[in-house]
Amino acid sequence: MYNFDVVRPTSVDEAVKALGGEEAQALGGGQTLIPTLKQRLAMPATLVSLSGIAELQGVSEEGGALVVKGATVHRAVAEAAADSFPALSDLAGRIGDPAVRNRGTIGGSLANNDPSACYPSAALATGATIVTNTREIAADDYFQGMFTTALEEGEIITAVKLPIPEKAAYIKFEQPASRFSLVGIFLAKYADGVRVAVTGASNDGVFRWSEAEEALSSNFSADAVDGLSAPDGSNMISDLHGSGAYRAHLVKVLTKRAVAQAR
Q1: How much is the pTM?
Q2: Which terminal CB of the chain, N or C, has fewer other CB atoms within 10 Å?
Q3: Are residues 176 and 255 in the same domain?
């Protein structure tokens, strides 16, 4: 590690002001950032901790959506969503281990946009709205590639609005050491159709499987997925845990399981 300053603002306005300083970076739960600092892959001069800002914590229901404040930890999401949005509760309750779930935040996960993280699939599958200190961003516009989002310098995620679906499921094929998704499928069924988001598989990060969405919107059954070809594996992540072709195969298998679980 190296020497750096830590600022602990108590309001979003104070945090935004602190982030305007030279070489300042926001710190959510630190589950990704702290290991990055240890490896000297990032070396900000100042960390601006968001964990002490009360207005960035909490979960509520508003207008048919679950609104999760940006600094809400995974454990709190799992508990709060258990009745109203079980699939999201299941997702949050299986991230990492208890230590991670008690520190990691939804805003930190979405801001980092790790290609194998769980929350991006929930945001994309539900057509969520990412709320920042300056604007609202539709999930379809927010995710722009591996570790890349629409966030601008100094912009903070203050809340995430996730429309509650009629039916939903999250199926994750875990990498057993990290508990990240080797492939994860979040499926959400609404009155106007089905959305299927895939995480852990693509070099471009989280994406929607449009062919499955079209088929399932017409016929919400595992049989509808049977007739589809697996996504093209040429742009899938290929590493020691699994080839691109294997990940492409898992996308189809896990989507079928998600349909069965959602039913």
Answers
A1: 0.94
A2: N
A3: yes
